[in-house]
Amino acid sequence: MVSKIKRWIIGKPLKTHEIQDQKLNKLKALALLSSDALSSVAYGPEQIVTVLAVVGMAALWYSLPIAVGVLVLLLALILSYRQIIYAYPQGGGAYVVAKENLGMNFGLIAGGSLLIDYVLTVAVSVSAGTDAMTSAFPALHPHSVLIAVVIVIIITILNLRGLSESATILAYPVYLFVLALVVLTIAGFYKVLTGHAPASSHAPVGSPVAGIGLFLILKAFSSGCSALTGVEAISNAIPSFKAPSEKNAALTLSMMGVILGALFSGIVFLTYWYGIGPSVHQTVLSQLSTEVFGRNGVYYFIQATTALILVLAANTGFSAFPLLAVNLAQDKFMPRPFKSRGDRLGYSNGIMTLGVASILLIIIFEGNVSNLIPLYAVGVFLPFSLSQTGMILKWIRTKPKGWGMKLAANLIGALICYLILIIFFITKFTHVWMALIFIPLVVFVFHKIHQHYLDVGDQLRIDISEKLKDVKLSENVIIVPVSGITTVVKQSLLYAKSITDHVIAVYIGFSPEAIEKMEKQWEEWDTGVRLVTIHSLYRSILTPLSRFIDAVKYKTDEAGARITVVMPQFYTKKWWHALLHNQSGTLIRAYLVRTKDIAITTIPYHFKK
Amino acid sequence: MVSKIKRWIIGKPLKTHEIQDQKLNKLKALALLSSDALSSVAYGPEQIVTVLAVVGMAALWYSLPIAVGVLVLLLALILSYRQIIYAYPQGGGAYVVAKENLGMNFGLIAGGSLLIDYVLTVAVSVSAGTDAMTSAFPALHPHSVLIAVVIVIIITILNLRGLSESATILAYPVYLFVLALVVLTIAGFYKVLTGHAPASSHAPVGSPVAGIGLFLILKAFSSGCSALTGVEAISNAIPSFKAPSEKNAALTLSMMGVILGALFSGIVFLTYWYGIGPSVHQTVLSQLSTEVFGRNGVYYFIQATTALILVLAANTGFSAFPLLAVNLAQDKFMPRPFKSRGDRLGYSNGIMTLGVASILLIIIFEGNVSNLIPLYAVGVFLPFSLSQTGMILKWIRTKPKGWGMKLAANLIGALICYLILIIFFITKFTHVWMALIFIPLVVFVFHKIHQHYLDVGDQLRIDISEKLKDVKLSENVIIVPVSGITTVVKQSLLYAKSITDHVIAVYIGFSPEAIEKMEKQWEEWDTGVRLVTIHSLYRSILTPLSRFIDAVKYKTDEAGARITVVMPQFYTKKWWHALLHNQSGTLIRAYLVRTKDIAITTIPYHFKK
Known about the structure:
2 copies of one chain form a homodimer. Chain A is built from 21 helices and 5 strands. Chain A is α/β, with parallel strands linked by helices. A 5-stranded parallel beta sheet of chain A has the order 3-2-1-4-5, with helices on both faces. In chain A, helix 6 (104-136) runs antiparallel to helix 15 (373-398) and helix 6 (104-136) crosses helix 17 (429-460). The radius of gyration of chain A is 33 Å and the shape is elongated. Chains A and B meet through helix 17, helix 18, helix 19, strand 4 and strand 5 of A and helix 17, helix 18, helix 19, strand 4 and strand 5 of B.
């Protein structure tokens, strides 16, 4: 039954060697892994404009130099991550780079930040998409948490069904969004070039602005850089690509960089040219579309694909989180189950952990996750900074051909990333202080897990050169608790006798009469097994049995023998019959196996009626 | 920890022979077992007056002949239950009488009705007491369900601490209530006799009343008879009395009859004499106290003890239900655990079942249980009727000395009880139809349970004359699933080898490489045990292991051997470490023991760090 439902939801299990069919080609990978980065085009330019408009509409021309800065950082990141892909083709991105070049703790900081970050990505993007939906259909507003949760569940299930299948379904909206923005940009430039959009609607570049300062410009720049979140995802997910995976991943990353850079600069320029400022009623993108097309079909197409891409940005988290978790689990910093592939060959434990964690976040914050956005940006720029730093050290250490240029790219990238981190901590400390608690906490947990696995390894390791067949075998003593003279007791005694001659039956009675009766019947039955009877004054079975076992164990340990307790377990034909039987056997077994160093043999007795 | 909390709540366990200290003397028993019946004095007269007042205040004199009818029934019931106590001193009351004289199904109807009824008693009386409390302190009103639940929990705990202790605590309020009503009655009569209460305030006996009819009188009579609920409790609880238990129980029953009869007739007469009618603002008892004493300390004392006795009426259920359940469990109609005594020698399973069931009822009905009162009355009068009928048949069959008088008493009692049942079904069918569903349902469940225990008995019974030592023992084959070469696997293999030479190790690998590596290491280790390797295409362990066991079982069954599967079970030092290990071993064990006819031996491995 449960198995049928599972089959229906996630599909039939796949054989291990079918993994090749689950690998992604470049077009599908681009859709799955860049949805997060591309969706930032929908809000990145708006964030720049919002900060600048504080000092007046005349300041908006500053968005052009700021956009150039963002493009420089984008270029540095793309170049750097291309190098990371070739240098660390097993995936793991910033975690592996920081670990190899800066030491394990920096690796764990990068990995921990990214794990937290992917949870935030899912929660933030699904909530943003839900907001867009409920803005269009206000009747849905009271159910927004439920809608967000259902969306996360759907994305989780799609991912459990396998990468290939989810990529096939999710690629369409991503490319439709790209198409929509390409159409918008081309049409916008056409109007600019043909003179339909007058230059009078914006202040010329270089106009003096009262009240503007370095701090504000840096703040606008750091806000604009939030458009770069998600750039790292491909470097974590290299193993999901079809062979040659590094080459395909690097190419996909470059494609993403070109699309992202082109759309971002196009939108920023048009926003400036058309003189669009922030508005509480409409997004910047919506205002721009209205200016270019008016409120026609094209406008609504742009709005719909934008809402959709916000939701699908979550999917980048689902593609990258499980693979990062595999890397951490392989190094024994995360629980081992994250390494095992599910029925459909995805890392289902990672997928489900991400789904559950982001649902909890959505429920706890009741869908109002916008306060988490700065935290989310810190979670991305910390691993950006660490991976750039790691690459710098790598070039200095190894000095490969042409390392000067490579070093320059990483140096510029690192400087910008650290600058942005500092700006975040200065301008939005009230939102990002949590990172100073959560990230060390996660690293601490990683270390505790690691220590446990090392301890377990020590305890399980054996010296294979000691041949097993030469080890001396110990004698067996079997204790059979008996409750009366029944078929079940007979079955247990026969089993015990078939193993050893040292069998002791033990009967725990609540009254002298019950004990006397048992002893008489036992003699009559002529079992050939010694019966020990114990009078339990307090009507407990567990305590006297446990003491008796301890007493026998004391003697057997001396003799080098080992104790087995044989216990029957009833299985009734109908589930409710189980309620009619004392489950004390199960409790006693659980207690003994947990506290004593003895073997426990269960002999099931399946009732036939 | 859990054990310490338990000790603190219910006290230290008692030895079985300390049961004598837990037996009740007459005064304590009277308090515990008659609180239900005595509390009815607080509302029985009111119910009569409420029905009569429908046709006018002049009709209230009818309450006097009706009270005489109630007294006749009370006398018949007391006489009858005294005879039942002597005839069936093991307790069980109506259940045993009906079972012995009318057949098992009538016994089950009586027993089932009473069980349901005790649950209703607890729910109804605690809710009524809570209502009295929240009327006095309206601020508590929004929490009335919570208060009622807490009261049930307190009474349950008191009963779990043992009969003797709860009787000591609960006896005071019962005797204070009796004292309060005795004072009220004497003072009331004193005022009547000294002429302080004029005869003009009531219509004289025999006054003609327009609109009164037989139906209304019968309805008032049946409502008044609700004052008799709880009379049967003593007959169910005879084993709780100090020896000689029958004699003490019979004497206690007579004492209760005298007190109940005297208080009931006194209150009815005074209510009539003072011309008190029903009021929505005050109970009849409150009006009567006001007339007799005014609103002074005595008045508030009467009100407080009345509220308290309503709550304590619940305790009668706690004294009678567990003993009735023991009787039914002894006859295999209820689950066996109802027969075992808890740490404090009470039948704790019965006590807790009653507590939980009545809490559920209070929560489901949100404390508004007044609609359940008629159902509750049916639940009492059905066993009353059946036990009277049973006694009639007993006298006719056995014809002991003076059986004519005894027969007459039971005949009158039976006729009145049947009459009341008919009146209930005619006048309050909308409330009592549920009895026609629940009682047959309970009887059906009793039979299903009984059948299961008979089936189990058949399956467990063995022929003791077949000497066990002569039974031929079968060979053992041991299967050891191995996951690698570790101390745990070594421990399992050594255990298996110490038992038999027929040991098969089985390794389930997910890739040809893993299998090849395992085979090589195995050979190197030189175990002397054959290793079977299985390649699991779908990365499942359970399915291939289960198939392998089936295949081995097919061969061993032919050879008359039996299979044991040896599995290790890890116990980590800290609870959270358990999260870091696959619990697949536990799942596999649970599956195998449930579905296969093999022995499963668990070898615990306790991590030391």
